[in-house]
Fold:
Amino acid sequence: MKYLDIANSSFIFQIGAVVIGFVLFQSVFFLIRAWREGLNIGLTREQMMAAVKSSAIFTIVPSLPILISLIAMAPVLGLAFPWIRLSVIGSAPYELMAAEIGAQSMGVDGLGGTGFAAEVFSNSVWVMTLGMIWSLLICIFFLRTLEGRVKQARKKDSTWMTVMITALYFGMLTVFIGQPIVAGGVALATTASSAAIMLFITWVMHRFKQKWLGNFAMAVSMVGAMALAILFTNTF
Amino acid sequence: MDYHNRIHRLGRISATIALLLIVSVPILISIRFNIFPPLGNLALGVATIWMLQFPVAIAEVLTYSPMMGSGASYLAFVTGNLSNLKVPCAFMAMDHVGVKPSSPQGDIISTVSVAVSSIVTIIVIVIGVLLIRPLTPLLESPALAPAFANILPALFGALGAYWGMKHWKLAVVPLTIVIVIYSLVDVNPAVLIPVCGLLSVLAARWMYNRGWVDADKEEAA
Structure:
């Protein structure tokens, strides 16, 4: 059986539906539980709806790269399995890398190289899956203990905890801001444009007291900068 | 049982089920189509990945779970895409609502945020899969390619501006370190994030001890 027939078989789509269906269910369940507790501890419905709106709008554009990776992987791994992988645990760059390693460990040049047959597909499937189990395992076994330590530290000095968490967050952010700055060219221009648009929208929000713009500031900055990226690429 | 204990129980159970379901995929595929990779090759591939992924996983849980709280963490680690989607999403939501990370309110808002984000991503991908035929020429069009190739710079430019306006002092040290490092070597971001996070925290502690930074600073107008 040609491996792409396997890769695109309805069987895998069905498994996928079960896995992703569960993740959807898990998300809804947590949402409802958190919502109820939120009301219990004094958060208002408006506040939580604000979080829902903000998160929903924020998520749309950054979800697009996932689709693009799906299209990139589909010719070699079929549509069904990348669909599952990209909806759970790993991120696109990881999945591609894992798939390559899976192929190479079978002695094939890489994804799509000659000799990429059913067994190689199967190996990539296994490697991609098993590769990413650790973060979930660590959560399952150690998250509660870790949280205990964090809460202890917070009791001692909660101001510092807030600063520390913000500092950690910047540690993460700056890695992704630094990359385009060093890379230069269109990437740098896009980053700068996005920042500029965000600054402008924030100024408009404060100057003209239009708070509602806040929800869309991220999306507008992103899409605006992406459009400018096309302009920059064509101009230079 | 109070919320805190419930969330951990819920989190552990659901994360375990999710993990079992995820691992069942290759098992079922292999059984159904009778295609088993040779054990040696499989072990080699998995060991290669684990060498990087194991320390990264530890670092990620240590770095992101205090930021998001436990409820959000159990969810986020099932669906992935933390640094480029879930974590910024949760932080924006908490900021929007006006609650602090790692507070009881913050943990709730963070959980709501990550749950909604996961749901939206799943829906977007399902729509994408269903519409893959008409969508492919659009998403692969050479005219639009630069836009899609620069989504991450666009995302982090906006995030950088937004958070930099509020806490620029905390951004200086990590940003400088990152620029210096990337100018010299090409490093996997997954490795750099915890390192940079640690250095950022050390710098923040230094500034905090001198009263240069405080949790309740005013936002830049």
Summary: Residues 45-77 of chain A form the longest helix (33 residues). Chain A has ten helices and no strands. The CA atoms of residues 22 and 28 of chain A lie 10 Å apart. The mean pLDDT of chain A is 87.
